[in-house]
Amino acid sequence: MEKVFYELVIEGHVPVIKGFIFGLLEGSKRTGTVIVSRENNIKTETLGEVFMEWTHLHESLCHVVIEEDFLNVIKNGLEKTFHVLKLKLKEVRKIKKASFHFQYEVYAKKYGEEIKNIFKELPSQLKTSPDYQPKEESDTECTDIGSLASCHGYTLKAHGSVEGPIDVLLFFYKKIQEFELIKENSIALHFEN
């Protein structure tokens, strides 16, 4: 069964929020997925949130992705400790899926094969967008000429997006971050209405 995830938006200092959540889960002997969005390149802030932080109209907002099993424990813990920690739950949103856009352009067959294999080994819960159509070209004239800067004997280009459950997607996202030739955008969360 696929796990259900929620995004919590909590107002307060990030180290206090992290300490509270991880301490609460450790104290209750629970294990599972907790993802701090800022630390995992997950897009969170709206322009309004950024403006309010710049003008210090409120403390910083921390976006945290948690498993559904932790939702009530964390909500109750925040309510019971508000007078001490001053952490305020601003929003709770159920996550439908997550996605990110990527692109690459490679000029060596060795790296092209590595990148093609990464996307061939895509976990079954994830899918690429229909616009992901790698274009591979070989130019024998360039290999015969030698090393001219504007001529490449091999080219592999593609762009597209990957979507799926946040926990599986994040693992794949970190895997492709290891390849400098793949340029990936921030992860976007998509919420249920």
SSE map:
Layout: E1 5-11, H1 14-27, E2 34-36, H2 47-54, E3 61-67, H3 71-85, E4 88-106, H4 109-120, E5 127-128, E6 135-138, H5 140-145, E7 154-164, H6 166-177, E8 182-184, E9 188-191
Antiparallel strand pairs: 1-3, 1-4, 2-3, 4-7, 4-8, 4-9, 5-7, 6-7
Helix pairs in contact: 1-3
Overview of the structural elements:
The chain is an alpha+beta fold. The protein folds into two domains: about 5-95, Alpha-Beta Plaits; about 100-190, Alpha-Beta Plaits (2-Layer Sandwich). Helices cover about 35% and strands about 30% of the residues. The chain has six helices and nine strands; from the N terminus they run βαβαβαβαββαβαββ. Strands 1, 2, 3, 4, 5, 6, 7, 8 and 9 form a nine-stranded antiparallel β-sheet that branches. The longest helix has 15 residues, at about 70-85. The protein is elongated and about 75 Å long. About 20% of the residues are buried.
Gist of the model:
The chain is 35% helix and 31% strand. The protein is α+β, with helices and mostly antiparallel strands and 193 residues long.
CATH architecture of the largest domain: 2-Layer Sandwich
Percentage of β-strand residues:
25-35%
Please state the overall shape, judged from the principal axes of the Cα atoms. Answer: elongated
Major sheet characteristics: 9 strands, antiparallel
Mean pLDDT: 89
CATH topology descriptor of the largest domain: Alpha-Beta Plaits
Question: What is the β-strand count?
Answer: 9
Alpha-carbon distance between the two ends:
22 Å
Unreliable stretches covering 5 or more consecutive residues: none
Over the alpha carbons, how many angstroms does the gyration radius reach? 21 Å
Give the tally of structural domains. Answer: 2
Overall helicity: 25-40%
Name the structural class. Answer: alpha+beta
For this structure, what is the CATH class of the largest domain? Answer: Alpha Beta
The SSE order reads EHEHEHEHEEHEHEE
